[in-house]
Design goal:
Blueprint: E1 15-18, E2 21-27, H1 33-50, E3 57-58, H2 59-67, E4 72-79, E5 88-89, E6 95-98, E7 105-109
Parallel strand pairs: 1-6, 2-7
Antiparallel strand pairs: 2-4, 3-5
Helix pairs in contact: 1-2
């Protein structure tokens, strides 16, 4: 951008917005949960961490990606609430969504 001479311009980094999500997973018969747990967590965290500053996160995108992991039969979002009126995690324009630890993506096997 352009500013007048002598104008003070303060550029601040985005605020980190910690995202926590809980997924309910139904596995295909005979698939041990230990073989897919890390893939589920890293897939969900990867989508969240790749989201740009100020861009809301589509819960259906996470469900779609996790559903494609070998051994996963079905995925449901336990938290945050996932309804037709609440289908995204809202991120403000100055925030960067981030998963800080692997515990931010909790997985419950159904």
């Amino acid at each position: 951008g352009v500013k007048a001479a002598g104008t003070y311009l303060d550029i601040l980094p985005p605020l980190p917005k910690r995202i926590k999500i809980s997924l309910g997973i139904r596995l295909r018969t005979g698939v041990p949960f230990s073989t897919v747990l890390n893939n589920i967590r890293s897939t969900a965290a990867g989508i969240i961490n790749a989201t740009k500053i100020g861009q809301s996160i589509s819960l259906s995108e996470i469900v779609r990606a996790v559903s494609q992991i070998d051994g996963v039969y079905a995925v449901s979002v336990i938290f945050p609430t996932y309804t037709s009126a609440s289908d995204v995690i809202v991120v403000n324009p100055n925030e960067k969504p981030i998963v800080i630890s692997e515990n931010d993506v909790s997985v419950t096997f159904l």
